[in-house]
Amino acid sequence: MAPVPPPLPARPPHASLATLRTFPAGIAFGGDYNPEQWPEDVQIEDIALMREAGVSLVSVGIFAWALLEPEEGSYDFAWLDAVVDRLAAAGIKAALAAPTAAPPAWLVRKHPEILPVTAEGTVLGQGSRRHCSPNAAAYREHALRITRALAERYRDHPALALWHVDNELGCHVSHFYGEEDAAAFRAWLERRYGTVEELNRAWATAFWSQHYASFDEVEPPRAAPAQLNPTQQLDFHRFSSWAFKDFYLALRAVLAEAAPGIPATTNFMATSATKLLDYFNWAPAMDVVANDHYLVAADPESEIELAFSADLTRGVAGGAPWMLMEHSTSAVNWQPRNRPKLPGQMLRNSLAHVARGADAVMFFQWRQSAAGAEKFHSAMVPHAGTDSRVWREVVALGGALRRLEEVVGSRVESRAAIVVDYEAWWAAELDSHPSQEVRYLDLVRALHRELWRRGITADLVHPSQRLEGYSLVLVPTLYLVHDDAAGRIAAAAEAGATVLVTYFSGIVDPDDRVRLGGYPGAFRELLGVRSEEFFPLLAGEALALDDGTSATLWAEDLRLEGATAVRKVDGGPLAGVPALTRREVGSGAAWYLATRPDAAGLASLVDALVAESGVAPAAWAGASDTAGAGARPVEPGLELVRRRGTDGTGWLFALNHTDRDLPLAATGTELLSGEAFGGIVAAGGAAVVREEPAPASPRTDAAQGEGGSLPA
Q1: Cα angle 479, 481, 482; round to 5
Q2: Is the bond preceding 365 in cis, omega lying within 30 degrees of 0?
């Protein structure tokens, strides 16, 4: 078992929501509020219903630009004045939006150059939302002006708690190819590289006669006859993320100047489906990290994807508490088949986010729209009104969150880490690779899923962040890696951690240049292995392994250079070639997975890694709270996470996603009921058990931000 290092000092990059002077007490509860869609009598009823449900925070004005500024320079704040005055009178706080996500028609008519242009040259029109490029000068000018007008008017309003800047930046359109975008890309490249000679070196422009004599010759990676320069594509991903962040920072600067002291954020989309923006890079610009999440109805394990997205958001926040800015009470409107949530699912989903670090639970939206593109998207007040299951569950959720107020500001406990990097994600999925079937999140999600099923919480950490204090470090598909990050991963093994690196990792440097000398490049020495060639498997092809499992997708002509083979290929052209290796490193170990194992193979591998590292579930199913006599693994479908306070108090969250009662070895007060926990989590139910204070875990301090700066 790997030794547990002493706790690290806490240096979180973000404050707890509880410390923001403008923020509601307890777990903030509410959602997007769009009163402009309703007459005044409904708005008045809204306030009464919000108080009944226990709503404490609403986002206001997100898509209201055309009503706030119906003509250029002519503002109408009267209706918004009435709304925020009513909220303040009811003791409800507002996250007031910079309403820049949907420019008004008059702005598009006057400045059609703000419209997005695709790689193929198609201009995307208005009539929807996000019909604007963050690089368009006219759009920026008008966005900054409406933002300043709002800040100056409401900066001293008692309802104002938070600035909600724009909305889901990068959604729908994330890359822009117009002339202003091209100019902005060139300027970004010149700042990044300094000289065109350095750009030529980084992009390897000697290939295919792509040499540039000046930055003026460079274009965005528009549609072309054949494969585009991969480093150009990678840099365009970086630029596109930067462009949105630069736009956010411009709005944030106006708010800070006109309304000092009011925190600001924007709602991320940190999910398994979204690789548009590098949220780790964005995080230092946020006063508090906020995220939107929606279940995919067709996913039979949607609760595991939710856990992944929440863990990713917590990782982006550096371990600090964060906001769930949007999720749904029931069905959404944008999937091919939009199934409603089952009874109890809304509560479990909401508590899963809280378990994994959220100190705010909010929905899209407060009242379900009667018209428009999202009219069939569920809401806190549904079309059916208050005589409905959804409304009753909303009121019940508000009560449950009030009973959990004591967990606010506490941190999630974890001794396992999964290294995640958006740049590696972008680079791994470029074209012209050995196999287009290798997808970055394949093993990231699979390994996270295996830990979830065992009741083990994983932190998702950026490779620039410190890994000390983790007993188990998983490094899946880290195709692109910086030298210092590779060294940090090696140091974790030296210090006693069990480290797993998987195939297609360490292959290229930040310029997408292959690390020569054999694969897996940056990790060869750590792992004690070397591959001369990859051996991607064909569709439907499988390899038999000598432990009775099989593998698909990927293999390598791997040889040992200090490591020991744990599994080998059994038969075929790669007979006897190692498929899984292990090397002792310092007081830890480094494993290498050179293929994609089947379900049984992956499960047995994770069992071995968990056993070696000593990482344990948050609780056990048996009579013991340790891995001794009477302890049993948690039942499949029982989600377990622990948050811990600075005084050592633990709060064990247990969410039962099955249709049967499940046992759980835990003692203490169950906060949802207010009674002593009886050892059973009801079918489809949830329990939050306050445990007796214990010494803080090494990984409740969120010190991941030390030890390396995030990429620029």
Answers
A1: 165
A2: yes
Percent helix, strand and coil across the chain, each to the nearest 5: 30, 20, 50
Using DSSP, state whether 444 is helix, strand or coil.
helix
pLDDT of the residue at 425: 98
CB 35 within 8 A of CB 43: yes
| Active-site position among 303, 326, 423, 556 | 326
Alpha carbon separation from 402 to 28, 157, 159, 374, 405 (Å, rounded) = 9, 25, 20, 30, 5
pLDDT at 185: 98
Instruction: Give the three-state DSSP class for 18.
Output: helix
Q: What is the pLDDT of residue 634?
A: 86
Domain 618-707 has CATH 2.30.30.30: no
556 assigned to active site: no
Task: Quote the tokens at residue 703.
Answer: 């010190």
Strand, coil or helix: what is 621? coil
What is the rounded CA–CA span in Å between residue 164 and residue 553?
Answer: 43
Read off the tokens for 355. Answer: 């378990």
Q: Which of 69, 168, 450, 670 is catalytic?
A: 168
**Which residue in 279, 283, 289 sits closest to 426, CA to CA?**
279
Owner of token pair 């990927």: 554
Residue of 527, 528, 572 lying closest to 546 (CA atoms):
572
* Partners of 687 in the β-ladder: 654
d(Cα 82, Cα 358) in Å, to the nearest integer? 31
User: Strands 638-644, 596-597: parallel, antiparallel or unpaired by DSSP?
Assistant: unpaired
The predicted structure's pLDDT at residue 23: 78
- DSSP assignment of 551-590 equals EES--EEEEESS-EEEEEB-SSTTTT-EEEEEEEETTEEE
Active site residue 533: no
**618-707 has the same fold as 416-617:** no
pLDDT of residue 708: 33
Q: What's the Rg (C-alpha) of the chain?
A: 26
pLDDT on residue 706: 37
Output phi, psi for 639, to 5 deg.
-85, 130
Give the closest residue to 146 by CA, choosing from 65, 85, 222, 206.
65
With b for 16 or more beta-carbon neighbours within 10 A and e for fewer, the 436-445 pattern comes to eebebbbbbb
pLDDT value, residue 461: 98
Pairing state between β 28-33 and 267-268: unpaired
Give per-10-residue mean pLDDT for the chain (712 aa): 33 52 87 98 98 98 98 97 98 97 97 98 96 97 98 97 96 96 98 98 97 98 96 98 98 97 96 94 95 96 98 96 98 96 98 98 98 97 98 98 97 97 98 95 98 97 95 98 98 98 98 98 98 96 97 97 98 96 98 98 98 95 58 87 95 98 96 96 98 60 38 36
SS3 325: strand
| Residues 702, 12 contacting (CB under 8 angstroms) | yes
Both tokens of 328, joined, read: 């749904």
- H/E stretch holding 609 reads helix 599-613
| Predicted pLDDT of residue 707 | 34
For domain 416-617, give the CATH number.
3.40.50.880
Residue with tokens 């910079």: 98
What's the Cα-to-Cα distance from 419 to each of 237, 443, 478, 602, rounded to whole Å? Answer: 20, 11, 8, 18
CA 699, CA 56: separation in Å to the nearest integer? 31
Distance CA 626, CA 418 (A): 24
Domain parsing of the chain, residue ranges = 266-357+366-403, 416-617, 618-707
What tokens appear for 395 in the block? 């009121």
Residues 6+ apart with CB under 8 A from 104: 65, 66, 69, 70
